[in-house]
Write a structure and sequence with these properties.
Order of helices and strands: EEHHH
Oligomer: single chain
Number of helices: 3
Distance between the termini: 27 Å
Radius of gyration: 20 Å
């Protein structure tokens, strides 16, 4: 456990990606079945002893993303897809927001 942290506290593992993990949180054990190609990629890319954390992070990301995708599909069905003008307006708004954010200092 990183120095200064106690059981149940959260910490940022990698500031570049800002993934937050709960230390020693209660957990449930499950069994999953994956195809051989996915298993080999997992073994090649994920360090030994970090498989559970990797899988939990992937599951959390998907569980957060799926309701957003469902909402976007609903909106597309109800109002039609975004036009090029809509997309340009959204990009302009996004660029303004990003430009107004404080820049990190090294």
């Amino acid at each position: 456990m990183p120095e200064g942290l106690t059981r149940g506290q959260s910490f940022v593992l990698d500031e570049e990606y800002d993934h937050t993990y709960d230390l020693m949180m209660s957990a449930n054990r499950i069994t999953i079945t994956i195809d051989e190609e996915t298993y080999e990629q997992l073994r090649e890319q994920v360090p030994s002893g970090q498989t559970s954390a990797f899988v939990v992070e992937a599951l959390r990301a998907k569980l957060q993303r799926d309701p957003i995708v469902e909402l976007l599909d609903y909106l597309d069905n109800k109002f039609g897809p975004l036009t090029d003008e809509d997309k340009a307006e959204g990009q302009e708004w996004y660029d303004e927001v990003v430009a107004s954010m404080p820049q990190p200092t090294d």
